[in-house]
Specification:
By secondary structure, this protein is mostly beta strands. It is built from two helices and 15 strands. It has one domain: OMPT-like (Lipocalin). Helix content is about 10%, strand content about 70%. The mean pLDDT is about 90.
Length: about 250
């Protein structure tokens, strides 16, 4: 229900701005995919009594994993940008437990074949204001409201246990670019650290014009973060080799 309301409000705001915005309005569709390369995916649930394991080191990733991100952005009044993002991510793992794993209310003993599932879907609504536009350079800052829809699940035969986590995360948004005649280099992302957790999602790369309204993009994305709270310990690092298309409507 929370996610549905978030998506409805995102769509409503985008439609409202399209109808009511002033000059220099532009709608943009950004579709991105690529290949993920894991750094770590450490889990301990519950935090106080569970067993620490690393999905990446202790089990085999089942693939191939082809992530997809869809972002709709709307630029208006030259320096203002509103965007909505849908970024699902699901990873499946399998292998024998390297040691006894106490997870939630279940105990998975050493040698048991375990099927693991890690979900981290992200739904975001953000705003950016460009503070500098000079000599091909653009630098902007803003904020992002993120809804995190996460799950960690372990299954072995008839024994299965899971932990779902649905929550709101406020993030700082940063953007910097250098434009040339037919291509552009840029850095863009959301991030914030403090308290018991952190979250970082940044892209560094470039885009190039295919036609006047269609561009290709390629680069590197880092997704890192997690939380160390009373009921959950989880920190994840995933690197992505990215390709995509950007369509100016």
């Amino acid at each position: 229900m929370i996610i549905q309301n978030f998506l409805k409000r995102t769509l409503f705001l985008l439609v409202l701005l399209i109808c009511c915005s002033a000059m220099y309005a532009q709608l943009r569709l950004d579709i991105e995919t690529g290949l993920p390369f894991q750094g770590y995916n450490e889990v301990r649930i519950p935090n106080a009594t569970g067993t620490t394991f690393d999905f990446n080191k202790d089990f085999e990733l089942q693939g191939p994993v082809i992530p997809l991100r869809l972002r709709v952005s709307y630029s208006f009044a030259d320096k203002n940008h509103l965007f909505g993002l849908f970024a699902p991510l699901g990873l499946n793992y399998e292998g024998p437990a390297p040691f006894d794993i106490r997870f939630q209310q279940s105990l998975f003993t050493r040698g048991q074949i375990i099927e693991g599932f890690y979900k981290f879907n992200s739904y975001r609504l953000g705003y950016r204001r460009d503070l500098l536009q000079s000599d091909g350079w653009t630098i902007g800052v803003g904020f992002t409201a993120k809804i995190r829809d996460a799950r960690v699940q372990l299954t072995s035969g008839e024994v299965s246990d899971k932990k779902d986590d649905l929550g709101f995360v406020p993030l700082l948004h940063l953007f910097a670019s250098r434009e040339f005649e037919r291509w552009m280099l840029y850095l863009e992302g959301d991030g914030l650290a403090g308290g018991p957790g952190r979250a970082f999602d940044f892209f560094a790369g470039g885009s190039f014009k295919i036609t006047d309204n269609l561009s290709g993009k390629a680069g590197y994305r880092i997704l890192e973060g997690g939380a160390d709270v009373s009921d959950v310990y989880n920190f994840t690092l995933i690197n992505f080799a990215i390709i995509g298309l950007v369509w100016d409507i």
